[in-house]
Amino acid sequence: MSVNIGWLFYRDYFEGLQDNDQPDFTHKSNRLAEQKVPQNKPLLRLGTEHIHAKTTYPGLLIGTGYQHMTGGDGEFKTGFYFDYTSGLPVIPGSSVKGLLRSVFPYHRETRDDHFIKPRLRYIRSLLPAHIEEPDDKKIEALTLEIFEGLCEVDKKPARLSAYERDIFHDAVISEFSQGKDLLATDFITPHRDALKDPTPLMLLKVAPGVIFRFQFSLHQSKVFPDLSAADKLAMFRQIILDQGAGAKTNVGYGQFDEVDEQKLNESQERAQLEVLRPVFENEVRELSSAHDEVLKALDFVKGKINEYEALISFENEMFFLLEVEGVKVYQEKEDVEEKIEEHVVKRAKKGRSINFDKPAVGVTVRLILKELDRDILRFNVYPIWKNQ
Q1: HEC states along the chain?
Q2: pLDDT tens, residue by residue, 25-66
Q3: What are the domain boundaries of the chain?
Q4: Which of 26, 52, 138, 255 could disulfide-pair with 74, CB 3.0 to 4.6 Å?
Q5: Rounded to two decimals, what is the model's pTM?
């Protein structure tokens, strides 16, 4: 069971402090800096939309304003923000909302043109091409709609219901980072006196290369009816990549690189298959070892076409389970799909029907047995063609 890193940082870190007037935190600091993203830890998936982004060098600082300093040697001098339950670093939803809000114009605190005009230009550059060039009032209305939940209805201001408002959830560490370095140490050197050498302060940071999942519940805009939830997500993605998150973004911390969502999903599928493969390969071996019983049940005759109808009773990412004459056999999905594709091409060239039910649970297919190969039963699976 993995340890709660937040507990290590705020509780275990200071354990026994009252018994030692000159504490040395070096060992505990090193332990924290060596933490990796836990394997197989459940990910808190929230919202209807999400994006992934990867931290870049030098890393990410969150929660540095929390108190954590006692004056001991080898101590982290700034705080850090951890989710209380998982113990992992998270970017609070309020912080995500705040960083996105900061690039929109029309804050209550100021109406200064030097503040508003650059933000107007920036937001216009983010709006999708199918949105007509909006005037300043429209952008102000969009700002209030997204961040304040206010919208004009029948020329009167109205508050959107909780089900219509955009919600900004915590950004959590993605499962795609499992096993990677999570935390690292760094130093800042504040110059409080121009005539004195600065004292380096050690701090904890999220290491570069960690993938975060930014999560939202977004809705189609009422100000711009053609602005969909997907359009808003694309705008937010660009803002996060441009602005960064957390503390000290002006000196390079908290910056993110874009992550290819399709490649992430493909890598996750491969990882899942690798986990499942030994289990199912073992089951296949057990079934194959009983080939004598299979041949007897199916009355296999060498040199003869041995064709049967088989029902697909189970499937997963790798295999189909087929039941034929009271016998269960497995076949890899990839093999089935390749054979079917070959037959579709051949039949199409001959002008024959290529209408069939796609292999899935509950579908009946043709199973043709072949000769034994090294004492392992080999067979092909084909569809049952309709309107032959």
Answers
A1: CCCCHHHHHHCHHHCCHHHCCCCECHHHHHHHHCCECCCCCCCCCCCCEEEEEEECCCCECCCCCCCCCCCCECCCCCCCCECCCCCCECECHHHHHHHHHCCCCCCCCCCCHHHHHHHHHHHHHHCCCCCCCCCHHHHHHHHHHHHHCEEEECCEEEECCCCCCCEECCEEECHHHCCCECEEEEEECCCCCCCCCCCCEEEEEECCCCEEEEEEECCCCCCCCCCCHHHHHHHHHHHHHHHCCCCCHHHCCCCEEECCHHHHHHHHHHHHHHHHHHHHHHHHHHHHCCHHHHHHHHCCCCCCCEEEEEEEEEECCCEEEEEECCEEEEEEHHHHHHHHHHHHHHHHHCCCCCECCCCCCCCEEEEEECCCECCECCEEEECCCECC
A2: 999 999 999 999 987 676 778 899 999 999 999 999 999 999
A3: 5-259, 266-382
A4: 26
A5: 0.70
